[in-house]
Amino acid sequence: MGHRPIAICSCPIVLLALAGSIGHQLRAQVPAHAVQVNPVRGIVNPEFVRSGSQLHVVTTVSTGSSRWETIYARSDDGGRTMARSDVVIDAGLPIENFAVDGMSVHVGSDGGAYRPHVVSSFDGGDTWRAATPIGPRGFGTTAPVPVIQADQGIVNCVWLVEAQTGPEVRATRSTDGGVTWSGVTQRIDNGVPSAPAFRQADDGLQVFAAGNVLHVIWRREIEPVGNGSSTFHAIHQRSLDGGATWEPSAQVIAASTLGAAPNEDVLPAAIANGVMLVVLDGMLWRSADQGATWSPTNGHQLARVTGLAADGSIVMVSATVPPWPGSLQLNASADAGQTWRSQPFVIDLTSPATATPHVAGDALFVDVRYAFYPSRVIQSDDLANNWRLLADVGEIVAADADGAILQSYAPPGTVWLSALEAHTALGQGSPGTGGLVPQLDGRGVAGLGRTIELAVSNAAPNALTGYFASFLPTVAVPLGPSTLYLDQPIGLGFVVNSAAGKARLPITLPASAAFAGLRIASQALVVDSGVAAGFAMTRAIETWVD
């Protein structure tokens, strides 16, 4: 039950031996408590966005004759079950990215006409509007698909386009949640080296938001003049007013004749508590002043950075180091890349591999993808000091402080999702004074030896709250005006709510691997003399310890 930890250790040899011994055995294994995505239409290269307890999935499937359908699915409980699946968004070319803002979902496309389009849903993905053009057609043959950032009704789109004078980066925005678009675009790549005309020489476009500041990062290739090798520039642009206006000139962070990293068109970049991080040619560049200035940093001591991830203030970097089979180097920082673990953690590889890091709160994950074996996922709960190998085949497709989502494959090419170390809401609570229903939320990644919180909000101020748990499957037993979802509940403790009607109960999970797969169902009772029953109940929370 759950994702079995094969080892918890600081010894690279243990992870190496395990990776080699079980590599071929788990190719078709489906994780426990997993759900199949789009079971009718299938799934190809899915994109995932998490928004609160919702997980949104957009993918494409071939319908033959070089035609595609864009397909949508949604989970309302963090990936445990799919509330919607097999929803056809549009028939056209494959999509590349999308964004979620409350009940609005915006998907980027070129509309099949080499022109940037947005396909939107305003009801959480139940119904979809036809693709809306947001900018002019490019002059080349590369699809200008917009990268979308959406927040509180403001939707920003940035895209790369081939123009008569060379590649350009353009931006536009909608101020009414994507309902209307002005059609006015701004060129935002002024002031940096230009590339040849009719050449798609830009890639790796990414948009990051830090409050009201938008950051755009991309890579530009400049053709050589007789020296036989291209020069790659990592470029940064920003808007200080949420995308309404942009800086007069973009800036070159760094230049290299080798490129960004051996990851095709990916330019590794991340944001950690407002600190921007970018990797070019194996070097990590950092800006602690909202992108105004940049400087290289090598405190991580990796030979050559190829992977980068961040969440909150925690940053992780990875490197796969030849000669093959080579080694995997990992390091992490708890202060947005200012200081690092004193030495990298090194794992000897059994064969050539690439590594993709992920940060979920303070839990670290790495997808290790071998050339001749299924991918492996390893996890650290102590900032890269110790690692354990997860037994299920798969890869991390979404990770943040709420946990991680693991994607696995099984014949005949189906895709399964499994919520890794997450909390699932069950049922509904009963109202207290004023009709307010107290809410219970699980916070933190529920890993072995880690501390999570059961947080109550929206409850009676200064009232007594009791926490209860069960290790048995959930039930639904009437209890006065409420419903008890716990079978044979055990009391965890009592806490007095704050004046704002909030309470928190920290729970430290055992560090022993024997507790892997533990399932905990929790619920809280709030003493409330303002209602006839004398109490109000929260919904339940189901937590899986992996």
Folded structure, characterized:
The chain has one helix and 42 strands. By secondary structure, it is mainly β. The strands form eleven sheets. It has a five-stranded antiparallel β-sheet, with no helix packed on it. A four-stranded antiparallel β-sheet has the order 1-32-31-30, with no helix packed on it. It is globular and about 75 Å long. The model is unreliable at about 1-30 and about 260-265 (pLDDT under 50).
pLDDT < 50 stretches? 1-28, 260-264
pLDDT averaged over residues:
84
Reported for the largest beta sheet, the result is: 5 strands, antiparallel
Distance between the termini: 9 Å
Strand order of the largest sheet: 33-42-41-36-39
By secondary-structure content and strand pairing, the structural class works out as mainly beta
| Helical coverage, percent range | under 10%
Radius of gyration: 24 Å
Query: What global shape is seen?
Result: globular
> Tally the helices: what do you get?
1
Structure summarized in a few sentences:
This protein has 546 residues and is mainly β. Helices cover 2% and strands 48% of the residues. Strand 26 (353-360) and strand 27 (363-370) form a beta hairpin.
Please tag this protein with its features.
4-stranded antiparallel β-sheet, disordered N terminus, 1 helix, 546 residues
Task: Give the secondary structure arrangement, pairings included.
Blueprint: H1 12-21, E1 34-36, E2 47-51, E3 54-64, E4 67-75, E5 84-92, E6 98-101, E7 104-109, E8 117-121, E9 132-133, E10 147-151, E11 154-163, E12 166-174, E13 186-187, E14 202-210, E15 213-222, E16 231-239, E17 251-256, E18 269-272, E19 275-280, E20 283-287, E21 295-297, E22 307-311, E23 314-321, E24 327-333, E25 345-348, E26 353-360, E27 363-370, E28 376-380, E29 388-390, E30 395-400, E31 403-410, E32 414-420, E33 423-426, E34 439-443, E35 451-457, E36 464-470, E37 477-479, E38 482-484, E39 490-496, E40 503-508, E41 519-527, E42 535-544
Antiparallel strand pairs: 1-32, 2-3, 3-4, 4-5, 6-7, 7-8, 8-9, 10-11, 11-12, 12-13, 14-15, 15-16, 16-17, 18-19, 19-20, 20-21, 22-23, 23-24, 24-25, 26-27, 27-28, 28-29, 30-31, 31-32, 33-42, 34-35, 35-40, 36-39, 36-41, 37-38, 41-42
